[in-house]
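#help-structures

NK: newbie question. if I give both the sequence and a SMILES, will the prediction place the ligand too? trying with guanosine-5'-triphosphate
OV: yes, paste both and it writes out the complex. here, I ran yours:
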Amino acid sequence: MDENRHEDNHQNSSCIRSVIRRIWQLVVTILRQFVCCPNYGEEYVPRREEHAVFAKPEARLLVVGASDTGKSTFMRQMRLEFGDQYPVEERRRHQPHIRRNVMDSIHKLVTAAARYEYAYSTAEAENSAQKFTEWPPLVAILENPDIDSSWPDSIEFLWKDPAIQKAYQRRNEFHLMTNADYFVSHAARILHEDYIPTIDDILRMRIVTRDAVTKTYELMNIRMTLHDMGGQRPERIAWVNQLDYPSAILFVASLSEYDQTVEEAEEESKNRVQESLDIYEQLLGYSPFDTTPVILLLNKTDVFSVKIKEQPLKKYFPKYEGPEGDETNAREYITNLYVELTKKYKKNLLVRYTEATNRDNFRAIFAFVSNYVSRRIMSIGGMY
Ligand SMILES: Nc1nc2c(ncn2[C@@H]2O[C@H](COP(=O)(O)OP(=O)(O)OP(=O)(O)O)[C@@H](O)[C@H]2O)c(=O)[nH]1
Ligand SMILES: [Mg+2]
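OV: that's the protein plus ligand as structure tokens.
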């Protein structure tokens, strides 16, 4: 009963907002006609600043999805393409995060090798591993610029040892960050005293988003605001404050997460694809989004194409009947899980496969997203 009343209230307020939006569009249209174009009948060419106030359509995109799927990486690409492109000072600010990524990766690998009782190939490797077993001294280097000069070589040396490589093959069991291989194999450069992060390092670093991050970009023919919403469970509680009539939803999911469990819910050992589908379904069922277009970005195609040859999809999704190791079939199976849910809610869905760390791929995907959103906004009167 209460639930129904809640639903009714929701629908009423949706209706009122929709009417207000339409009235506002009408006012803007009248203003354009009589304020911007006083010489009615002549062809009107707006001045630059009038463009900014009246003509440029605005879009508001919600970038949502489960944690670790690539939402913030997409935002970093936006900044590289349309923002300040990460000047040196800004890159330097990320130095401790990236060093932490190196330390976290090698610590988790060494810990896993010990847990699986994998023996190191030499006594030297065994000794090196000892340096990275305790976390507190490792994290202390982030405040202390005098990094033990033996560490970079030890990390790169350990990375080649079969014990660490065998642990790496089982990385889905212990929440190793996606680009751990990149960080560990670049340890010497990253731990060097003169280190300044490169753009590649920035795109690959892992920092969990706490609180939503909002950025507005003035693009050629549209002003676009993107809200990057933290995807971990505690962060998702804040989503409701931002869910007010977006122009479109960019739902980011990782193709490569099919063999992993949710990091922040270790006790449940819930599969990450299932978590992502559950979040997706909640958004589809949220009534203010009834007419909001959804673009599904199935991300981490590079990681997926390597993983699918190593980890059978059927082991994690027993209903998968396609050939094992076949990237196209496996990709379609995962895509269909989202498509089926979308059909259930009678919505339209646009799907794109992405590699958020790849500049060219990002450019192509963003061109598609911005064209689609601009055309849609223009078709409903220039405002949303
Ligand atoms: N190799 C590869 N790594 C990716 C790709 N997309 C994202 N990553 C990496 O995956 C990790 C997680 O990406 P984020 O963008 O931080 O994920 P998020 O969705 O913002 O996560 P939350 O902030 O926890 O919600 C980072 O280390 C990224 O560099 C991809 O397409 N390929
Ligand atoms: Mg993030």
